[in-house]
Amino acid sequence: MSKSAELAQLIRARAGDAPPKLGLILGSGLGHIAETVEGVAIPYTDLPGFPQAGVSGHNPTLAIGDLEGVRVAVFGGRGHYYEHGNPAEMRCALEVLRDLGCTQLLLTNAAGSLRADIPPGGLMLLNDHINFAGINPLIGEPTDARFVPMTDAHDAGLRAQLKAAAKAEGIDLPEGVYCWFSGPSFETPAEIRAAKILGADAVGMSTVPEIILARFLGLRVAAVSIITNMGAGMADEQISHEQTKAMAPKGAAKFEQILRRMLKTG
Ligand code: HPA
User: Given ligand 1 and candidates 178, 239, 241, which is best to mutate, with the most ligand atoms within 8 Å of its CB?
Assistant: First the structure.
């Protein structure tokens, strides 16, 4: 049995057999949503192969149970490439999700905005991305399955559901292109100007490897950025992780409203 199948079996023994309808990976400031799931919470330390390090502001547990009456699997924290240099850090977790019978995934992250009309405290729905880090979690994958098409990577159906839920809640949810920088240092103002010229609307240090892995594993996927700051050099303030953690809850509350509405309306 594969490692992920073994873990899925262990998780089913604790959480029950019903497959989650939606998987969620929560970024900075959103970990508390995992605590509101009515079900079981399994710390990553009980799950070999799950990211064990983590970043302050994350909540490293897998919560499985009901949110607004829908069965979900919520990853309260993620591994980042910058923690260790492994872009496939989330592969095992996503394989487990697939092995639990889940087919849809929603990702969130904290990001810097490159657009004046998407200010800190706001949200952006990813409609595409640029892998500017140039690193790929499928490097070393031995089969032809590694040649994953990325044309429609950001699922149109999930995006439409998110847009409709945002509209119903009266929350602005502009769409845009997310550009992945490896981090952990923030970008320079010149890099932000370059990203703008390349067609990016926001920059961040996660999510892109997970989108690639999700498509590889056959999961439908969509992602939402919580805007915590303007890109480097665009505003007077100094960018910092403290600022990310301080600003994330504002956008996170809006995201939670959209998520709950989306789950309620099915
Ligand atoms: N750059 C990269 N990652 C981020 C930023 C940023 O400006 N803000 C929050 N995460």
Answer: 239
